[in-house]
Amino acid sequence: MSKLYGLSKLALLNTAGYAKCVIPLDKSASICAPNNTGKSSVINALQFPLINDLRLTEWDGHDLEETRKFYFSTDQSYILLEANLPHGDVVIGVAGLGKIAGFAHQFFCFPGKLSLDDFTEGKSIIKYTKLFKHLEAQGKKPIELKAQELNALLTGGATPFDGDVNLKMIPLNNVQDAAIYKEIFRRILNLHKLGASDVKRFMLRVFERHMSNSRVDFYEVWRRAFDKVNRSRRELAALESMQEPIAALETMLESEATIKGKLAAYAPKIDVALVEYDHYQQEHMAELNAQLEDIEQEKHDFEQKQQLYLQQSRDIERRQTQIEQWFIDYHALKSEFELTNHATLKTNLQLLKKEYEQLSFSINSAQGQSLHTLDYRINETQKQIKSLKLQLKNLEFNLFTRMREDLSLKEVEEISRILNPDLLSFATTNQGDITITDDDAFGEFLEKLSANVKGGELTVPGAIIKLKKLSPVQMQSGENKEQLNAQLDALQQSLVEFKQQREVAANVAQKQQERDALYDELMGLESALKRFEQYQTMLQSVEAQELLREQLNAEREQVDEYLQDVQRNAGSISDRRSIIKSKQDLLSRQSDRLRQVKSERIDHTLDIFSGKQAPYPIDVKLDFDNLAEVVHQFNKDCNELRNLAVNVRNTYLHIYNAGITKFDNETDETSKYAKLISAYHNIDNERDAVNRQARVALTEVAATIKGLREDLDRLRREMNSFNRGISQHRISNLQSFKINVIPRKMLVDSIDTIISTSDNYEQGDNFDLLSSQPSDEKAVNEAKDHLIKLASDKAGLTLTDLFDIRFEVVNRAGETEHFDKIDSAGSNGTRITIKLLCGMLFIRYLLSDQEQALYRIPIYIDEAADIDPQNQKAIIETALSFGFVPIFASVKPQISCDYIVPIRSVKNGSQNWVDEKDWIEVEHSTTQAV
Fold this sequence. Notes:
This protein is α+β, with helices and mostly antiparallel strands. The radius of gyration is 68 Å and the shape is flat. It starts with a strand and ends in a 9-residue tail after the last strand.
């Protein structure tokens, strides 16, 4: 076997649960460890550098966020590949950027062999941010790559780094096949998930360059092709049912042409006449205005005189009215004051005013005080009067003066707080109210009483009474007799006022009425006094006013005579003015009428000069007298034309709504109506056209689905060629292996029915969907219904809907087996073999014929212990013959491989470890011994 280039080692550093992991990729290897140790994690790591588009990767049910965190939890996590290539060894790396970068990763590469010492410094792994500087210090030339740049380097595409490094190890026929290559490669890293549907999808993707790769929505294709036919059939039926409305439409169009001819003859002459009428109206109106101005001036002069005499007459009348009113006022005052004088009026006014002020004061004093309050004040005042009279009566000899003989004034005042004030005024004489039988005993009593009343407190057996809130009695001495008399007079005056106030308060409303009556009487006297003074003044000018009245009467008679003369002369002026005004009004009415009919013109909204017109046979002549009537008739004709146009449109709309719509796309209505009427007169030709459309539509449908049918034939030829290529290689423990394309009979037959029927028509057969060949039409309709149903269920037909695949396996004993599903194959070895063959053969088909034998590609087989050693050996030989290196994974080592790679745990089982020193190379001999 010639030397193969490609991957030689895979190394993991501080990633996916591995502190360190190095496995060989240049020869078959058996990775062995207990279940759930991380065997699949090692091989799945190949997806990062080799697929490098996370959208195309698969991680055993984990999402991309979990996966990135699992593989690149720190910026000291690395996935490394060593590749032996024709231009030398290279290292491809994927470095983690850590949590701060969202667990993202970065691709890089450099020429040279893989040494993990280049990624460590002492016992520490170098962070990616410091890696390039470290590698450059070791003489390396690292290059940082984007995902698309790495993909281009691996497949031989153009990149900015072509002069620095060559990573080509996937020599595709076409770099555009990279996506399907990655999808197949992902599946052979997870063979247990590969099924027949995947194989079918890979088959179509691999050969899609040779296919039209179309999706046919058969329902839409059929509907689009026969939509015009069905529409034409409906329109033909509508045309047959709408013959009477179409005939009416034709009649209306002829009437429309006649009216258009008449309007086209009148319109330009009316426009000219209207312009000329404007000049005529302006000149005639100017002449009448000049005549009217002369009359107006004459009328103005007479009106000035009339206005002068009228104003004079009004002034005289106003003065006469004033004089007459003066004499009315004078006689009224004379009858009122002829028998009185000014002094009497003045005296009566002063007396009434004094009476009014006294009553007002009493009312104002009584307001705000209740009867109870006034009664209280009257009683209190009476008490005070009585007390003062008592003091005056006993001013020299009373109880107060007697107590002063034994006590000081202060002590007497303190005791007076608890005594009735009048008690101190009682006389102590022989005939008095107080008789002192024993002066000494009375003096001792006063001393004891004074002793008990001290400091404003009265001390009695069992109690102390505070007296400060009681006022001491103020007693007058003999020298204050005049003061007492004055107080007594004031109190007696207050008592009189309080009684008057109480009388007023007892009947306030009546007193207020009395006051109001006095006020009105007072105002009446004041007014009378003023009128008396006016009467005195008027009495002095009676003779002068009499003379003035006579003069005004004479002047009034003279002015009235002048006014009558002016009014007689103004009558003839008014008559001449009315005649001219009548002429102006007539001209204005004519102008207004013409302006009105001009405003009613709608000919500018009508298209009277286009389309069909009937010539108008009468010569049109216009004059100004009947111009308004001519324009009015012209407007009526325009309205009739507009109504005709509405009826034409409504009639056409009625025909259109009945189903005749094909003429609606015409650029102008005249052409639309003409073609509709032409179709009405040529209905037999319309029937023939519909029949031709039906035949053409079937041809269009056949042409659309013919591409799918040809793709199926092309795919079968490609797969036959593909199977012949497989037979040139030894295939594991099988004699032969084929992937057969099995057409779905009912679907393909339906397509063939439509295509063959269309071909018959194109070759000259008379296939008429409307009448002849009923049996063929039935077959076509059945085929159509089947295709529409299937296309509707699948949202369109594609090549994948036309066939199924079947795997044909011939074992070494020559027994042939067919499988529709890979997982239904007999033994696990056969199933694995079929899956491997499918994946390897499709990838090999994508590779360049000249270079496919130069490169090796790793494949992964999980649960390898389920395959017996003989099948294992056969699988390894077959894989190597196709340029693939199998990597087995199992709990126990598989000695069919070239290497056994055990996984061991470190750090108390928290991390896994695989070193090159742990590899066990198997020496194969006839006895298959280690």
